[in-house]
Amino acid sequence: MQAINWAQIDLNLLKVLRALGEDQNTSKTAQRLFVSQSAISKSLKKLRVVFEDDLFIRERHGLTPTPYCLDILGQLDEVFDSLDALLSPSQQFAPETFSREFKIAVNPMLLTALSRSLYPRLRALAPNARFQFIGWSWDTESKLLNGLVDIGINFFPLDLSTHIKATPICDAHYQICTRKQSTFDQQGVNHNTIANTPFILLVMPSYANAVSIAEQYMAKKGISIQVLARSDDLTSCLAMVETEDCGLPVCSLIKNELSEHLTLVEFSSEVDLPSFKLASYSSYVNTRKPITQWLMNEINQVMFELDNETRS
Hints:
Elements (H helix, E strand, L loop, with lengths): L10 H13 L2 H8 L3 H15 L4 E4 L2 E4 L1 H21 L13 E6 L4 H15 L4 E6 L4 H6 L5 E6 L7 E8 L2 E6 L3 H5 L3 H6 L2 E4 L10 H8 L6 E5 L2 H8 L5 E5 L10 E4 L11 E7 H4 L2 H22 L1
Parallel strand pairs: 3-4, 3-5, 8-9
Antiparallel strand pairs: 1-2, 5-12, 6-12, 7-10, 7-11
Helix pairs in contact: 1-2, 1-3, 1-4, 2-3, 5-12
């Protein structure tokens, strides 16, 4: 396959390719670009000839990008940003005129709490933008690398590609979420109550079989724990905790998501928790962009405020 000469490619075709990469559906892309679905299909046919690749594989749920297509999509934002800079070299990023989509992937534990605070802030600063808040999943790493996700928010450290930059934001303060008047609420969180009280565990999508931090810690102490259920949805986990004398390890940032029947309990001093932080993640290519730096700054401010609020 020969190297692509970007100068010979119709800019409108690239717009279609980027939109298809985001929508993965010809009908949705046609609606977004105000053209017919047949026009999108014809453009995709031309793109396949230009790039000598299928680019997208049609499956039941829509279009799935090929590995080569993902590589191209990862370069498109940089191409369009370079064009923007060329046409208006003296302008800095202006959120009030930004009309594209922000794509932010967040650990499922923090997704609701962060989006509840972050969305209105971003909406006020960038009123013409669109927003996509998604749970961090198995493919988030590749989407960060290929520019399909602008920024990820998760715990730190994570074992990710060296092409992804992690920027720690604040400490991750772990507590046990439990029903009021439960064993953990009345007797505290210590080695004895951990060993004798069951758990509900929150996991990331497609990581249901992974060993949790709580299980790793207790295994090192020679203590086995009973896991009643696992879920990748925080709301489901909280609902289950309300029905059982059990505990759910969480970050204190979710404090405002608890019902009146639940409470957070500190770990006792005998439980030597590993030190974790919360961090933003982005590809090194995107990190240098003004839009990414602006978005990271806004996320940092919201998380600082949320951290102070939930610890008070």
